[in-house]
Amino acid sequence: EEVTESDDEDNLSSVLHQRAKMPWRACGKYLSAAGILLLPLLVLSQLLKHTVMVAIDYCLARWTSDAISGKTELELRNCSTCEDFNHSPYSKVFSILCCLGIVLCLVTSIAVEWTGLKVTKKLHSSLLNKIILAPMRFFETTPLGSILNRFSADCNTIDQHIPATLECLSRSTLLCVSALAVISYVTPMFLIALVPLAIMCYFIQKYFRVASRDLQQLDDSTQLPLLSHFSETVEGLTTIRAFRYEAKFRQKLLEYTDSNNIASLFLTAANRWLEEYIGACVVLIAAVTSITSCLYSKLSSGLVGLGLTYALMVSNYLNWMVRNLADMEIQLGAVKRINGLLKTEAENYEGLL
Question: Which residues have a Cβ under 8 Å from the Cβ of 174 and sit 6 or more positions away?
Answer without folding.
Answer: 46, 47, 50
